Amino acid sequence: MSQRLKVKQILSDDKTHYEATVKGWVRSFRNNQFIALNDGSTNNNLQIVIDAENTDAALLKRITTGAAISAAGQVIPSMGKGQRVELKAETLEILGDCDPEKYPLQLKNKPSLEYLREIAHLRFRTNTFGAIFRIRHSLAFAVHKFFNDRGFVYLHTPIVTASDAEGAGEMFRVTTLDMKNPPRTEAGEIDYKEDFFGRSTNLTVSGQLEGELGAMAFGEIYTFGPTFRAENSNTARHLAEFWMIEPEMAFYALEDNMDLAEAFIKSLISHILEHNREDLDFLATRLAEEEKQKPQQERSDMGLIEKLEFVLHNEFVRITYTEAIDILKDSKPNRNKKFQYLIEGWGADLQSEHERYLVEKHFRKPVILTDYPKEIKSFYMKLNDDNKTVRAMDILFPGIGEIVGGSQREEDYDKLVQRMQDMHVPVDELSWYLDTRRFGTAPHSGFGLGFERMMLFVTGMTNIRDVIPFPRTPKSAEF
Amino acid sequence: MSQRLKVKQILSDDKTHYEATVKGWVRSFRNNQFIALNDGSTNNNLQIVIDAENTDAALLKRITTGAAISAAGQVIPSMGKGQRVELKAETLEILGDCDPEKYPLQLKNKPSLEYLREIAHLRFRTNTFGAIFRIRHSLAFAVHKFFNDRGFVYLHTPIVTASDAEGAGEMFRVTTLDMKNPPRTEAGEIDYKEDFFGRSTNLTVSGQLEGELGAMAFGEIYTFGPTFRAENSNTARHLAEFWMIEPEMAFYALEDNMDLAEAFIKSLISHILEHNREDLDFLATRLAEEEKQKPQQERSDMGLIEKLEFVLHNEFVRITYTEAIDILKDSKPNRNKKFQYLIEGWGADLQSEHERYLVEKHFRKPVILTDYPKEIKSFYMKLNDDNKTVRAMDILFPGIGEIVGGSQREEDYDKLVQRMQDMHVPVDELSWYLDTRRFGTAPHSGFGLGFERMMLFVTGMTNIRDVIPFPRTPKSAEF
Q1: Is B94 in the A-facing interface, judged by CB distances under 8 Å?
Q2: Chain B nearest-CA residue for A184
Q3: Which of A51, A228, B20, B222 has the fewest CB atoms inside 10 Å of its own CB, making it the most exposed?
Q4: Cα–chain center distance at A220
């Protein structure tokens, strides 16, 4: 038998007139003659031409959408429209049947994204989700490549943790105790000393604190792993389980941190534009069609590819929180009381509507906001000399809002302990974290990028459940 | 100020006589003149020469092991032994002090691995753990590179799951229910419908089943993420949280699966031999010294580098379980009743002692064992025509035992359901999994590689807690 080749390879090769075997799934079969075969290597199908007259009728009947087949024959130039080459089948074998009466993707009408979410185990087989998850792969690889090229160390920070890293939100408990009859202390409390880890444990909300330990030895590290929030938010923007990338760098001031984050995001976009153009084009077309359904004023003025290239080729705007407040206070929607939360003055926590105004209306560019009031940020952020603001930076993206949150970290032991006490963070429990400030402390910075937020931006999808293979949300943990 | 350069860059560059700024941590300071500076980019230190006579005595006192410093000056050829170049400091700044009375790594005696496990947050700063975790980074990158180069799709399978994938072991519960007063059904059972996900959920033991869903769309996928076992095993080989790599490939028979696994392992070894030679050499020396403490007959006959090159350049032995039983039954330790578990005949589950005999004594090579009795393997493995054995394959490594477990999967719907029923696997709950066999099933295979097992092999370390940054084990979830 001739060598098995992937569809992507055959379609991208200039060669013709050679023997090949292909294996994949039937996307369509028309005129009892033309099979569109997909093997997952690309969204494009290979046309297989069969000689219906000399093919068993029973076999022909089994060539249905979704069936797995193996075909061998000559790769030849195609006479038909839409493809350069096709495979003239000499042999054809059905590896696995697919009953057209039962197959959910057999539907003549295009299945909705909502319906496909219910059959997430099969949605990979559609063009849309094929494109999305090949891009997700590339984006993940680009993350590793970016940091590897720069000498960062990939640090696997723990998933099960006894510490609530930053008070970042509600946590999931991890336990092996008998829920029906847990051991109790004399005082009647649950006795977590009897639990698997000998203490109360949760799923991590962030690898940052452990990441800082790594940065203070390797200089530059990053994490890339699952993180969790037990928030009961059933929205298109929230997941209970999502992936996050958290680099942490010794000897980086806030400016270095911003430079790195901007270079990082641009390198991700550059990578997929180079490696996933077909899939991006497919999603761009999908998005353009979706936009057509919207009223004129809600449509985006840029297509998906344009938007990616715009971010790639423009510097992000960098302004302080204080400057942003001035802009917002004086903005039309604030003066006309169109904001739901009006900006009265300095100190206000920015809402999504404000971030979107800055990014989408005022600057029309990604914006990095820095130096937020200390009251609305985490304990570990470096206090500025004004004693009012911290060296935080949030990167805001059009349509997405905050895509990166980061800061220069407070490296001074005394100041950090003071902040922890002010914010009721347990100093004793984080004694190991404080050791980085006790022993050879140094200026350092880091940030977190929500991987699914980035996926939303590069795919043009609007529901975060459509960019992770198996979404975990309140009341749902299917598959 | 001159540009900040990493120590690795300065030491690997042929240039001399140029200005540079370096930042890092003091490893040692001798004669009030020579600082050995480490910045985590390499195990090698940069010698910084300071002009003690013209340096403030108070500053000199603060140059202690562990202190973070910044130094700038000329990179010049070194007169001293042990280094090609050194930095003649013109300016020196202490960024963070390190009290020699309190710093745990200040010890004059070499700290033990056991002690370093207790201060895992600081052990990255030692040569041994610097080398280990730079290698861990490279090994992880090599995983992604191998699969990316071959067109595999990286699939993030879920961490929180409602299914017990393969009955692979004890699981951790994930819950937000109030442990003190959980909601109950009328029958008095815990009412998991009230839990966050609306059902009982656990931490995943394997991404395989979800991986198969991906393979039946993308053709070839892999996972690389944390997996969990709530087994109360306090040994040098077990972790409650560990990382696993699980590729899953449509249209692969068992032979293709073995070919891929062997090529994969060799590419990992080849990658680190190419990129981490200094760190490997350091660990090889460490291991050789450790071996010297052992009685002659317990010593390994190969050094670390030799062992890696041996695996790289030799084909793995491939034999069936049945052949292995014949060898073991007839072996000296079996005949002399030296095995703890004597091999009486076909059907016996192989113990570590048997695996080690095959790999370390009989073949003296990595061994792939195939076609195990169905009774001792999982439900999803393809049944052979003999109706007795399944198309399983385990790869056994010297000193490690099983490093890879895999199989061709049962693609036949009826046979698979029969096996599930025989083995009391709930068919209804895995209806989504069975859909891969209902709709366009195809021969497919996959395997799992325990990342920390591989780390043990390539680093020569013997305790698995020393090759993961923050080990999770019974009664321990520090940091």
Answers
A1: no
A2: B180
A3: A51
A4: 22
